[in-house]
Design a protein that fits this description.
The protein has a single domain, classed as Zn-dependent exopeptidases (Aminopeptidase, 3-Layer(aba) Sandwich), CATH 3.40.630.40. The chain contains five helices and eight strands; from the N terminus they run ββαβαββααβββα. The protein is globular. The chain starts with 10 loop residues before the first strand and ends with a helix. By secondary structure, it is an alpha/beta fold. 26% of the residues lie in helices and 14% in strands.
Length: 284
């Protein structure tokens, strides 16, 4: 299969050096929530600007996994703020208040495909989207991201007989009002495998033991089991294994300002580098 475009409005693709038609490893790394860009066509509808875009962004997660290409794993990084469109949501996860022209969905989510409010309850939209505006965002931002992941994973499945997707995130150290665990202090690392449905048990075991061996507090699937990316692409029965990894932002940021903290980040990067090495070598 041909490689996805290296750059488009939806994402940046950082390929392993010298990788041609033959993948170097079975691993693909996805970073869906580090982006803060707001396309000009979407900006008039969004209330959040500047630093406010960082409040729910997984700031600098692509930097945490920067060594992935050198180790043989493509790194796919969403460019656009999740407030504009969240690629880790299903394309039909749209609140009726976000797009009244659609039929009312079975469940309403203020933070679905298009976020209506932040996790702190701030309104994010100046007005609802039209059906055409919603379709445009899906076509420009959601579909290309998932097409790139699918193509990269299929190339690796054909080459190695299996593929591994690491969906990389960060999380607030304490649950916010819009979360399922408001006010609760969180673990250092939360691996999510949709309670065993998205990957082989051996992969979940590897990830958990790796972080525990580095003396991090690990709570699998609590409070995050894995989002749309993990659920949509993880097909262990077909040889595609997906796991989501959430790291506590307090491990690498000044959390209140979302500023990178070198003193904190060094240890975490070392642990993640060795995790990438283990995943490149992993065989189900």
């Amino acid at each position: 299969m041909s490689q996805p475009p290296a750059r488009c409005e939806a994402y940046d693709l950082r390929l392993p050096p010298g990788e041609g038609d033959e993948p170097r490893s079975p691993l693909v790394v996805s970073v869906p929530h580090a982006g803060t860009e707001v396309p000009a066509v979407d900006a008039p509808l969004l209330r959040a600007v500047g630093p406010a875009l960082l409040r729910d962004a997984d700031a600098f997660v692509d930097r945490l996994y920067a060594r992935a290409p050198a180790l043989g794993a493509p790194l796919v990084v969403a460019r656009v703020s999740r407030y504009v469109l969240d690629v880790n949501r299903a394309p039909d996860d749209v609140d009726h208040e976000v797009c009244p022209e659609l039929e009312r969905p079975a469940r309403a989510s203020a933070r679905g495909l298009i976020w209506r409010t932040s996790t702190e309850g701030a309104a994010l939209l100046h007005r609802p989207l039209t059906r055409d505006e919603l379709t445009s965002r899906i076509d420009r931002l959601h579909s290309p991201y998932h097409a790139a992941l699918a193509a990269l994973l299929e190339d690796r499945r054909r080459r190695f007989g299996f593929a591994v997707l690491l969906d990389a995130h960060s999380m607030p150290s304490t649950g916010r009002p819009g979360h399922s665990d408001p006010g609760e202090r969180r673990a250092d690392v939360v691996p999510g495998d949709v309670r065993g449905a998205s990957c082989a048990p051996s992969l979940s075991h590897l990830v958990r033991r790796h972080f525990e061996g580095a003396r991090y507090l690990v709570k699998p699937n609590d409070p995050y089991m894995g989002g749309f990316i993990t659920r949509a692409h993880g097909r262990p029965g077909r040889g595609v294994h997906a796991i989501q990894v959430e790291v506590n932002r307090d491990l690498y940021l000044e959390e209140d300002t979302a500023r990178w903290d070198d003193a904190k980040a060094g240890r975490l990067i070392s642990t993640l580098d060795s995790l990438l090495e283990a995943l490149v070598a992993y065989r189900p």
